[in-house]
C-alpha cells in the first residue's frame, strides 16, 4: 500500500431537482457520482478523465470540499475530513487548493495580481515570514511571471499568464495537494504545454500532489502517474498510467482511446528523423 | 398542464387570503375607529358603543375578519331591523361616509381605469417596442441617441410634471385639444378620444421609456447571438433574419413585464387619474385615502393584489407557450 | 445519394479548383489605427478536397472564413481576391452575397447549441434555409429537411424534425447544423471548429460523418481547427496560420512529416500525444 495523501472511499453524490413550484411537478434524483473510490499517492498525480456528464467535475468539487458528498468518506493526510467544519475545514483549505478552467473568470478583474495571490492568506489569517510582498514576488517568479507585474490587473495578462496567476494563488498557502479542474483546457496548445511543464516542475520542487481532471486524454498522459477513467458517475477503470493507456481493459476506455485523433505515425516518424538529421547537421 | 394551472390557482387563493388578512390587520389596529367617524362631532360614548355593536365592531378580530371574508362570497348585512344595510355579494365592505357598497364604487369607476390602461398600453407597446428596436438596429447612430435621450426623459421626469407640461402646451398654448371632460364614448366619440389622449400619452410615456430601453438591450443581446450568424450564413434576407430570429427571443421577456404592468394599471393609475380628474379606481383610492375611508382603501388594496396575482399566473402560462425550453422537456 | 430534391445535382469534377483566395487581407479599425487580422493569405480549395486551416487563438483562421462568407463583423474590410468557381466574391453587394451564402457556400460553427435558435424547431430552421434559395412549398421543404436529417443519420427523422434544439444532445445538434448546411448541396462547406465543443467519442462520429458526406456529394471543404491531430486526419491540404499570417502551406503529408516553419515545428512539439511515439522515436533515430 502506497502512502496516500488523499483517500476517497465510496463517494456518492446525488442531486435532487425539485419541481419549480409552478409547472414542473415532483422531484427527481440524479446520481452524478456513484460509489467512487480512489487514492492520490503523495507527491504524485492522479488524473481523472471522462467526457461531459461523467461526474469528474463533481468529483473534483467533492474532493476540494466545495460541496459535500451524499455518502462516502474523504480522508486527507490520515485525517477524516468528510465532516470537517470550522477550524478543521480551514486547515484543510490551507492544504488543498484548486486551479480552475477559465483563468479570467476565476480572477477578480478589479484586484491587482498581488491582492489576488494573497487573498487565500488573508482568509486563512496567515502572515508569511518575509512579508506578503516578498512572497508574491517569489511566487510570481516561481510560476514564470515577471515579479514586477504584481501591481497589474488580470486583463493585462494573456490566458496562459492568467492561469499562472491562478497557480501562484493556489501555491500561496503552501498546499500539499492541488486540484486542477480542466486547468489547461482553455489554453492554446503551445501555452498548454508550458503550463503542464510548470505543473510538473512545481511538483518536483515542492513535492506537491495533484488531482488533475481533464477531458483530454493526451493531456492526462503528459502529467498523471495514475489514471481513473470515469463514465456516467462511475470509475470504470483505474490504475497506472501506462497500463491504462497501453493495455486498457474496459471497453469504454478502449473506445475513448480509439476516438482520440492521431497524426499518422508514419509522418511522425519521418518528421522525427528529419529533425534529428537537421539537429545533427547543425 | 391543467393540473399545474390548478395548483397555481390554489396557491393564488392562499396568497390572496394572506393579503386580505394582513390588510385587515393593518386597518383593524392602525386606523381610527369608524364608529367615531360615523357618529360625527357631537357624540356620546353610549352612541358610539351602539354603532359599534350595530356594525359588529365590538366583535373579536377573528370574527370580524370572518365576516369580512364571508361577505365577499355571500354578501352581508350591517345592523338590524329597519336601519339594516345590505351589501350584496361580492361585498368588499361598505363605506359609511358615502353610504355605498365598496364593490359598487369600484365597479362604477372600473371602466375609466380600463379605458386608460388599454389605451396607454397600446401606445407604450407600440412606442416602446418600436423605439427599442429602432435604437438597437441603428445602434450608435443619431436615431439611437434620439430614442435613448427621449427614454431617459421619460424615465426621469415625474408623471405629474409631464401631465402639467402637456396640458399647458396642448390645451392652453397651442389649443390643439379641448379641456378634458368626462364623457363616455357613446355620448361624443371625438371629445371622448380627445379627453383620453393626454392621459394616455402621459401614462404611456413613462412605460414606453422603460420598455424601449429593455427592448433595445434585449435586441442588441440577441443580435450578438450565434444563431443570428447562422441565420445570415443560410442566406436569409436581412428583414427575415430580424423578424424571425431576433424579435421573438427579444420580446418574450417583455411579456412578463407587460402582464404585471398592465395588471397594476387596472388597479388604478393614482397620479394620472388625479391630475386629469379622471374618475377611475386610482382617483377613488386617492380620494379615500384623503378622507380616510378605510373600507374603500381596503377594497382597492385587495383588488390591486388580486389583479397582480392573477396576472402573474397568466404571464407564467403564456411564457410556457412562448418559450419552448420551458414548455418542452429536454429529451 | 438518396436525395431527390427538385434540382439537378452536379457533382463537381474532383480536382478542379473550386475556391481561389489570393492576397486576402482583413482589416479592422481600432482606436490605435487599422489592425490586419488576416495578412496576405492565398490558398486554393479543390472540389471534393478538404483544406485544413490550423492556428491558435487570434491566428485569423475564423476571420478568413467569415471573409469568404461576406459576414465579417461590423467595421471589418477584406481586400484581395476570393473567387468561387472563377467568380469574384469580394466587392459583391450584400444582396448578391445572400444568394451565395447557404446555397454555394455553407457553414458549420463551433457551438451547435448557441448556433441554433432555441425558439424554433430544428425542422423550421432547416426548411427556411432551403426555401430562402429554392422557394417552393413548405411541404417540399419539409420533405427535403427530413431527408437531410436522415442523411446525417438522425434516427426517427420524421418525428425529430418537430423537436427543438434543446431536446437534442450536443453531437445530434451538430448533425442538425450539418444537415442544414448540406440540404442545399453547397459547392463549399466551411466547418469552423465543428468538433471542438464535443466529447472525443462524438467528435470521432462527426468527423466520420463529414468524410462520408463529402465522398457522397463531392463538396469542397475548409476545415478550421486548433487541433493538429484532427486536421491531420481530415485534410488533404493544410494551412498553418499565426497572428494573421500564413506561416506554412502544403499537403498534409508535407506539413506533418516535413514542416518548414519553426512555428509549425513548435506546435507539433507542444502537441500532447496519447501514444507517445516521440520518446521512443527519438531513441531509435539517434
From TrEMBL, chain A:
Its EC number is 7.4.2.10
**Predominant localisation class:** membrane
Please list the residue ranges annotated as the ABC transporter domain.
Answer: 17-257
Q: Can you state which reaction this protein catalyses?
A: glutathione(out) + ATP + H2O = glutathione(in) + ADP + phosphate + H(+)
Class in the EC hierarchy, top level: translocase
User: Which UniProt keywords are present, listed alphabetically?
Assistant: ATP-binding, Cell inner membrane, Cell membrane, Hydrolase, Membrane, Nucleotide-binding, Repeat, Translocase, Transport
Recorded hits in CDD domains, A to Z, give:
ABC_NikE_OppD_transporters
Xref: SUPFAM superfamilies = P-loop containing nucleoside triphosphate hydrolases (SSF52540)
User: Can the keyword Iron-sulfur be found in this entry's annotation?
Assistant: no
Q: Which Pfam families match?
A: ABC_tran, oligo_HPY
Q: What is the annotated localization of this protein?
A: Cell inner membrane
Q: Say which family it is in.
A: Belongs to the ABC transporter superfamily. Glutathione importer (TC 3.A.1.5.11) family.
* Annotated function: Part of the ABC transporter complex GsiABCD involved in glutathione import. Responsible for energy coupling to the transport system.
- Summarize the subunit comment: The complex is composed of two ATP-binding proteins (GsiA), two transmembrane proteins (GsiC and GsiD) and a solute-binding protein (GsiB).
Give the protein's recorded name: Glutathione import ATP-binding protein GsiA
TrEMBL record, chain B:
What the entry lists under InterPro entries is as follows: BPD_transp_1_N, MetI-like, MetI-like_sf
The ABC transmembrane type-1 domain is annotated at: 110-319
Record keywords, A-Z: Cell membrane, Membrane, Transmembrane, Transmembrane helix, Transport
Q: Known PROSITE patterns for this protein?
A: ABC_TM1 (PS50928)
Can you tell me where the transmembrane regions are? 9-30, 112-134, 146-170, 190-210, 254-276, 296-322
Membrane topology term: Multi-pass membrane protein
One Pfam family hit: BPD_transp_1
Please state where this protein is localized: Cell membrane
Please give the superkingdom of this protein's source. Answer: Bacteria
**Family stated for the protein in its record:** Belongs to the binding-protein-dependent transport system permease family.
Q: Which PANTHER family match?
A: DIPEPTIDE TRANSPORT SYSTEM PERMEASE PROTEIN DPPB-RELATED
Q: What is this protein called?
A: ABC transporter permease
Give the organism, scientific name. Agromyces salentinus
Automatic annotation (TrEMBL), chain C:
The record's subcellular locations are: Cell membrane
- Record Pfam families: ABC_tran (PF00005), oligo_HPY (PF08352)
Which GO terms label this protein's molecular function in UniProt?
ATP binding
| Positions of the ABC transporter domain | 19-268
Record membrane topology? Peripheral membrane protein
> InterPro entries of this UniProt entry?
AAA+_ATPase (IPR003593), ABC_Ni/Peptide_Import (IPR050388), ABC_transporter-like_ATP-bd (IPR003439), ABC_transporter-like_CS (IPR017871), Oligopep_ABC_C (IPR013563), P-loop_NTPase (IPR027417)
KW ATP-binding (keyword) present: yes
Principal place of residence:
membrane
Provide the alphabetized UniProt keywords. Answer: ATP-binding, Cell membrane, Membrane, Nucleotide-binding, Transport
Family statement: Belongs to the ABC transporter superfamily.
What is the name listed in the Swiss-Prot or TrEMBL entry for this protein? ABC transporter ATP-binding protein
Amino acid at each position: 500500500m502506497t502512502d496516500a495523501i488523499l483517500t476517497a472511499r465510496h463517494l456518492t453524490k446525488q442531486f435532487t431537482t425539485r419541481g419549480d413550484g409552478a409547472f414542473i411537478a415532483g422531484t427527481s434524483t440524479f446520481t452524478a457520482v456513484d460509489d467512487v473510490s480512489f487514492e492520490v499517492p503523495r507527491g504524485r498525480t492522479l488524473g481523472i478523465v471522462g467526457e461531459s456528464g461523467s461526474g469528474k467535475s463533481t468529483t473534483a468539487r467533492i474532493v476540494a470540499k466545495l460541496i459535500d458528498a451524499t455518502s462516502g468518506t474523504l480522508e486527507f493526510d490520515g485525517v477524516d475530513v468528510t465532516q470537517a467544519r470550522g477550524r478543521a475545514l480551514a486547515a484543510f483549505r490551507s492544504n488543498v487548493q484548486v486551479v480552475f478552467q477559465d483563468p479570467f473568470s476565476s480572477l477578480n478583474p478589479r484586484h491587482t495580481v498581488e491582492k489576488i495571490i494573497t487573498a487565500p492568506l488573508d482568509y486563512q489569517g496567515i502572515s508569511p515570514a518575509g512579508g506578503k510582498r516578498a512572497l508574491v514576488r517569489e511566487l510570481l517568479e516561481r510560476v514564470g511571471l515577471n515579479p514586477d507585474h504584481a501591481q497589474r490587473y488580470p486583463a493585462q495578462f494573456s490566458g496562459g499568464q492568467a492561469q499562472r496567476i491562478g497557480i501562484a494563488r493556489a501555491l500561496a498557502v503552501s498546499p500539499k495537494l492541488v486540484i486542477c479542474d480542466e486547468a489547461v483546457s482553455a489554453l492554446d496548445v503551445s501555452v498548454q504545454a508550458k503550463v503542464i511543464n510548470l505543473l510538473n516542475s512545481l511538483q518536483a520542487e515542492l513535492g506537491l500532489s495533484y488531482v488533475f481532471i481533464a477531458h483530454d486524454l493526451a493531456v492526462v498522459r503528459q502529467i498523471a502517474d495514475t489514471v481513473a477513467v470515469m463514465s456516467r458517475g462511475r470509475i470504470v477503470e483505474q490504475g497506472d498510467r501506462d497500463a491504462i493507456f497501453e493495455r486498457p481493459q474496459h471497453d469504454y476506455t478502449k473506445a475513448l482511446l480509439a476516438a482520440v485523433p492521431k497524426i499518422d505515425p508514419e509522418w511522425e516518424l519521418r518528421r522525427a528523423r528529419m529533425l534529428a538529421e537537421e539537429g545533427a547537421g547543425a | 398542464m391543467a393540473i399545474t394551472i390548478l395548483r397555481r390557482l390554489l396557491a393564488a387563493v392562499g396568497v390572496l387570503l394572506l393579503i386580505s388578512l394582513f390588510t385587515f390587520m393593518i386597518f383593524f389596529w392602525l386606523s381610527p375607529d369608524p364608529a367615531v367617524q360615523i357618529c360625527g362631532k357631537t357624540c356620546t360614548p353610549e352612541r358610539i358603543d351602539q354603532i359599534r355593536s350595530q356594525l359588529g365592531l365590538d366583535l373579536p378580530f377573528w370574527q370580524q375578519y370572518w365576516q369580512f371574508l364571508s361577505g365577499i362570497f355571500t354578501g352581508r348585512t350591517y345592523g338590524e331591523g329597519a336601519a339594516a344595510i345590505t351589501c350584496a355579494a361580492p361585498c368588499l365592505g361598505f363605506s359609511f361616509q358615502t353610504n355605498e357598497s365598496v364593490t359598487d364604487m369600484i365597479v362604477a369607476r372600473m371602466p375609466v381605469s380600463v379605458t386608460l390602461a388599454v389605451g396607454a398600453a397600446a401606445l407604450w407597446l407600440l412606442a416602446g417596442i418600436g423605439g427599442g428596436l429602432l435604437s438597437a438596429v441603428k445602434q450608435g447612430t443619431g436615431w439611437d441617441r434620439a430614442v435613448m435621450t427621449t427614454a431617459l426623459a421619460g424615465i426621469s421626469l415625474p408623471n405629474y410634471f409631464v401631465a402639467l407640461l402637456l396640458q399647458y402646451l396642448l390645451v392652453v398654448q397651442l389649443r390643439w385639444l379641448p379641456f378634458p371632460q368626462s364623457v363616455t364614448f357613446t355620448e361624443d366619440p371625438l371629445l371622448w378620444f380627445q379627453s383620453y389622449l393626454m392621459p394616455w400619452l402621459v401614462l404611456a410615456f413613462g412605460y414606453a421609456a422603460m420598455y424601449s430601453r429593455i427592448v433595445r438591450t434585449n435586441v442588441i443581446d440577441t443580435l450578438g447571438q450565434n444563431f443570428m450568424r447562422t441565420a445570415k450564413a443560410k442566406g436569409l434576407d436581412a428583414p427575415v433574419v430580424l423578424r424571425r430570429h431576433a424579435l421573438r427571443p427579444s420580446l418574450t421577456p417583455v411579456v412578463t413585464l407587460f402582464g404585471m404592468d398592465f395588471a397594476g394599471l387596472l388597479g388604478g393609475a393614482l397620479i394620472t387619474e388625479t391630475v386629469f380628474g379622471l374618475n377611475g379606481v386610482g382617483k377613488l383610492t386617492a380620494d379615500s385615502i384623503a378622507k380616510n375611508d378605510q373600507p374603500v382603501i381596503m377594497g382597492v388594496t385587495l383588488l390591486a393584489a388580486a389583479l397582480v396575482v392573477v396576472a402573474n399566473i397568466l404571464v407564467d402560462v403564456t411564457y410556457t407557450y412562448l418559450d419552448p425550453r420551458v414548455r418542452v422537456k429536454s429529451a | 445519394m438518396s436525395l431527390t430534391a427538385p434540382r439537378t445535382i452536379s457533382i463537381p469534377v474532383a480536382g478542379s479548383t473550386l475556391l481561389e483566395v489570393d492576397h486576402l487581407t482583413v482589416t479592422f479599425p481600432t482606436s490605435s489605427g487599422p489592425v490586419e487580422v488576416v495578412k496576405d493569405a492565398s490558398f486554393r480549395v479543390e472540389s471534393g478536397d478538404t483544406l485544413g486551416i490550423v492556428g491558435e487563438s487570434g491566428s485569423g483562421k475564423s476571420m478568413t472564413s467569415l471573409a469568404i462568407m461576406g459576414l465579417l463583423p461590423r467595421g471589418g474590410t477584406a481586400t484581395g481576391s476570393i473567387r468561387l468557381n472563377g467568380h469574384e466574391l469580394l466587392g459583391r453587394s450584400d444582396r448578391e452575397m445572400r444568394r451565395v451564402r447557404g446555397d454555394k457556400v455553407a457553414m458549420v460553427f463551433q457551438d451547435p447549441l448557441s448556433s441554433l435558435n432555441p425558439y424554433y424547431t430544428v425542422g423550421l430552421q432547416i426548411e427556411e434555409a432551403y426555401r430562402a434559395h429554392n422557394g417552393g412549398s413548405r411541404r417540399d421543404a419539409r420533405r427535403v429537411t427530413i431527408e437531410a436529417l436522415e442523411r446525417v443519420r438522425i434516427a426517427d427523422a420524421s418525428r425529430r424534425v418537430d423537436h427543438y434544439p434543446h431536446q437534442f444532445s450536443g453531437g445530434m445538434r451538430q448533425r442538425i447544423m450539418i444537415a442544414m448546411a448540406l440540404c442545399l448541396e453547397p459547392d463549399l462547406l466551411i466547418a469552423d471548429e465543428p468538433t471542438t465543443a464535443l466529447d472525443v467519442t462524438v467528435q470521432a462520429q462527426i468527423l466520420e460523418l463529414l468524410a462520408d458526406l463529402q465522398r457522397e456529394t463531392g463538396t469542397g471543404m475548409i476545415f478550421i481547427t486548433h487541433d493538429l491531430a484532427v486536421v491531420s486526419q481530415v485534410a488533404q491540404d493544410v494551412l498553418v496560420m499565426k497572428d494573421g499570417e500564413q506561416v506554412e502551406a502544403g499537403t498534409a503529408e508535407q506539413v506533418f512529416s516535413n514542416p518548414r516553419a519553426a512555428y509549425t515545428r513548435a506546435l507539433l512539439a507542444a502537441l500532447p500525444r496519447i501514444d507517445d511515439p516521440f520518446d521512443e522515436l527519438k531513441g531509435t533515430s539517434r
